[in-house]
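Sat 14:20. Reprocessing the chain from the morning session after the first attempt stalled halfway. Input below, unchanged.
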Amino acid sequence: MLKRISNEHMSNGVGLSQGEVNNYLREGNCQSGGVSLQQGNFQQIIATNQYRAIVNAALVKRPQLKQATFTQLQPGISLHPNILETSPVLIPKIHPLPNGRLKDWSGGKHGNEEKEGDSVVLKDTHDMEKYDPEKFVNREAELEAVAERILKFRRAEAVTQPLINFWGVADVGKTWLLREIEHRYRYTSSQVGELQKPTCALYLDFFEMDISVMAVAQALLQSISQNLTKPSLNSENKSKIFQLTQTKKTEEIVQFILSLASEVLFIFLLDTTEVIDDTLWEKLEVQIFEPLLKSNKILLIVTGRNRVQRWKRVEVRHRATPIEKSQVKPFDKQTTEKQVVSLGYTANIAAEVFVDSAGAPGLTMRLLSHKMTLSEEQYAQERVNEWNRYIEDIFEHLSELPATFKLMITAVIPLRYYRTQALRSMLKKAVNYSEDTSDVFLLRALRKLVKQSHLV
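Finished this time. Tokens:
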């Protein structure tokens, strides 16, 4: 895609899902090969002073930020009056963690993060929607890809891509997808003795754990001990697990897991992988992922917001499903209707909520709840609040970018395509940007925006 951008100066553009903007979403023309910002009626959000709303939301959620130092946007950059009623805009001084997330900002699924040695301790501060198998709908393509691999494993056939990296924006349903896989392929003793090898799906959320190579190895071991029962896990294996928890040797833990994998098909489900910095990720790849995948006995499924493949090792990289085949996308109108109707509501209500949520399943559920309990006026405000929180989450993941690029994101939000000419126009009209607007600079900026994993 970057080659197409550089050769054609964005003539084909990069598709942006926008909710109702120009009826684009209703026409079903969203380009799957492009990069779309968080979907929804962004023009409405811009009109309601999104930057101030983001800062206010942070202050409400984290009162301690009131004591933080605030700084103006860098000289020469100010927001157009159409965006904000007053100027200058105040944004908190925020400090990125090694993995690019913010230390003093909480948004989306994630909470506070603290650095401790070679690991990141993650503390949940947000009450997420709990997985309910009765409410799970759609995702047939993703589940079929998993089922095909499991069938090959059970037939003792070679699986060319035993590593699936599901990725996508917040609230698109990545965690629910993993939970559904866990539900379908959980271990039961009744499977033992059948012609096919029993499955044992094990779910780990990196957001909820102390992340280090040993911590991940120990977590896998603990999950096996909790979910695997007799006859697959006998007293000898239990003793071995206890021994390994004491010796704490990663290589021995991996070899023990592989010995169990001769009798049980393990499906490791690793969620929220974007919280791990690249250095630690590479250590996990070398010490845990690579030996597991090379055995051709284990299915590894990871999810996160990272669009770009992070795999460094050749033995791992060529076993991974291509990113274009593993994106978890928002629902279209038909599948959103299926989701809403399964919850007991009408197709008409589903159509109304779809316009506001742009098909993001998590947003659909929250907006549906608001719609059923609030007045029309209250719902209109809460809809804006939900999208402001969504945008806050985007900016939380942009800590490594300078303020200039954040303004560019604001400028391209209402656009259908990323084009240098369109970006130049919106920078002038929307955010009153007066610095470098040459094609070379804007093209370089667009390339950087395309590479941002959360802008998908």
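The chain has three domains: 2-94+380-451, 140-325, 333-373.
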